[in-house]
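User: Hey, quick favor. My workstation is busy. Could you predict this chain's structure for me?
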Amino acid sequence: MYLRIKEIKSYAREQLLSHMWTAVFFTFLHIMLTNLCTFCLMVFPGSGSIVEMFIYEFTTLMIDIFAGLLQVGVACFYLNVATDQSQVSVYNLFHAFGHTPDKAIKITAIFSLIHMACTLPYVVYTLFIMPVFSMEDLMNMNPEVLKCMGLAYLILGAGELLYFLIRLFFEPVYYMLVDMPTLSVAKALKMSIWLMKGSKVRLLGLHLSFLPLQFVSLLTFGIGNLWVIPYMNTASAVFYNDLTTKRLNQ
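Assistant: No problem, here it is.
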């Protein structure tokens, strides 16, 4: 029988306790690097041309690939924490750069293309359909501005939700790149779908169980995420270990 969500979180807290400050610094470094990439997209100019859309999507793909390489490092770090390994180190963040980075790049590129497809309606709307508003309109909170911005975020939210649900099928993949490095990309993806059969709702429940802590973190202007994120990631690693142990021994 699989561990219950409560048991997963309890074990994650125990495992994280002796590595908490390393995990806090690790999380801070990871956030800084990924936010730097996000900032590059935020300052991307918008003129509404086809060429610009392709440049934007290509830039997004490159940033996603870099973030995916880091995500393998995140999986490595928290697998070490969850299994009480001695090699828990901030340097785990760069694990993928020295261990079959080609597989991480291929898998991340696949995820990025899926994400692009899910958010393409948002990109098309904001670049080609949504009117260009002046700074005065933005400052005065023009009703038309609010309507267009609200629709844009609604489209974006729907796309992100769809992507999130798709990714539930592939939650184990980055862990598998660390835990089972000899697997091919195709086999890793297929095995991930097989592993998650019957466990997607359980994983969704685990993610949703952290919503109260994430809300509290908002009250600290995000500073609390330095503790909440390690807790969440350790729980995900424990979930993966429990899943693979039980499924592979069936």
